[in-house]
Amino acid sequence: MNTKTYNPFETAQKQFDHAADLLDLNQATRDLLRNPMREFHFLIPVKMDDGTVKIFRGFRVQHNDARGPAKGGIRFHPMETIDTVKALSMWMTWKTSVADIPLGGGKGGVICDPHHLSQSEQEQICRGWIRQIVKNVGPNTDVPAPDVMTNPQHMLWMLDEYETIRGEKLPGFITGKPVGMGGSKGRTEATGYGAIITLREALKELNIKPENTTASIQGFGNVAKYAIELYNKLGGKVICVACWDEADKTSYSFKKKEGINLTELMTISDPFGGIDKVKALSMGYEILPGDAWLEQEVDILLPAALENQIRTDNLHKINKSVKILVEGANGPTSREAAEIINQGKIHVIPDFLANAGGVVCSYFEQVQCNMNYFWEKEEVLGKLDLKMSSAYLAVSDFARSNKLGMRDAAYVISVNRVAQACHDRGWV
Ligand code: NAD
């Protein structure tokens, strides 16, 4: 993978600069939005199970909160860097803005590897993270959520620590909690479903019937599985999925021309979204190299695994048949590749629009917690559909009327909303 020189924060800043040029933003607004407003670095001492004390590094970055409390996940990763967290916090600002929910952008992290930490050690990291940042986060200031290698249990420990220190119940402080403990129904499905809702609207605009389309997908995790589920319900056929093989330390693509069977593949996949290739072979799947998902003769490509997967070095592999690129993952297309795609015929649904379903549902979770009244799943998914389709239509209308690509249109809309909020508050 071509990630050596990839610095996500530089990419995020260049993307912003391009949007700022299109909007002709003044210098003060550029200076304000090019960097996070606040950045916290702290140390978390943890008493390890073997009696030693280990110090972990934690971060929280609040990129911008002009439109509402900062919102964004907390990642646990051994290779976590402040630049990744800063980039992701900026992308969250644009994501909440393009989805038009009253929140800003933030992100957090701890440099650690949960694979090698006991439950008790992980609980101490969660509680320690809260103790270091308690004065600067809250339901009305900054609302965290799960992200890479953090889960609903981590969120519940964090909430418990926060409420204990504050001496009151504040379930709207954090989202991604377990259903029944303040979590929202529909959150698991929200990102994958959200991506397909935007795809459905794009297909309508292009006058293509979903049942006449095929798709190829990178990833078989949370986003990909629910995307496949809803796409299948619309009548679409996925012919190829790719995933990581932990044992072989490489990725493979799994192909079935007549359409992959989601239920069948789920029975032979692990909790990390890896597929058993021996069993897949016996079920009639072709096992192809990791990049093969990109080369398929399909109408739709849906990267839903990692960042930086479509680059100038593999762009030529995309089949001429591809009409729509739905970016389920964060940053799956490099900036240079995105510029080339923008000149061509592929209709792009950019990442921070296509995968906004998760944060939209997190916003619904916060609303339900603040009301202490929880909705049924159908209601959550109905509201998700409305938010995602309106966000998509606003971007595509703007792209058409201003002769912009979809990515530029999404950036211009979201950056403009944030810049306007900063201006209206009298900041710039
Ligand atoms: P996940 O961990 O559930 O699944 C990731 C999938 O990607 C797995 O199937 C894994 O095998 C596969 N994968 C990993 N490395 C690969 C490689 N080199 N080649 C091919 N496949 C590979 O993750 P997820 O929650 O589905 O998230 C996927 C992407 O979507 C990430 O970029 C994430 O940041 C983004 N995203 C997720 C959400 C959410 O709500 N889950 C929301 C917004 C954005």
Write the layout of secondary structure elements.
Elements: H1 8-23, H2 27-33, E1 38-47, E2 53-64, E3 70-77, H3 82-98, E4 105-111, H4 119-133, E5 142-146, H5 152-166, H6 187-205, E6 214-218, H7 222-233, E7 237-245, E8 250-255, H8 262-266, H9 277-282, E9 286-289, E10 300-303, E11 324-326, H10 335-343, E12 347-349, H11 351-354, H12 357-371, H13 377-401, H14 406-424
Parallel strand pairs: 3-4, 3-5, 6-7, 6-10, 10-11, 11-12
Antiparallel strand pairs: 1-2, 2-4, 7-8, 8-9
Helix pairs in contact: 1-3, 1-14, 3-14, 4-5, 6-7, 6-12, 6-13, 12-13, 13-14
Bound molecules: nicotinamide-adenine-dinucleotide.
Bound molecules: nicotinamide-adenine-dinucleotide
Give a short account of the largest sheet.
7 strands, mixed
Number of distinct beta strands = 12
- Going across the biggest sheet, name each strand in turn: 9-8-7-6-10-11-12
Oligomer: single chain
SSE order, one letter for each helix or strand = HHEEEHEHEHHEHEEHHEEEHEHHHH
Helicity range of the residues?
Answer: 40-55%
What's the Cα radius of gyration?
21 Å
Distance between the termini: 41 Å
- Percent of sequence in beta strands: 15-25%
Poorly predicted segments: none
Structural class of the helix and strand makeup? alpha/beta
Molecular shape: globular
How many individual helices? 14
- How would you state the average pLDDT, rounded? 96
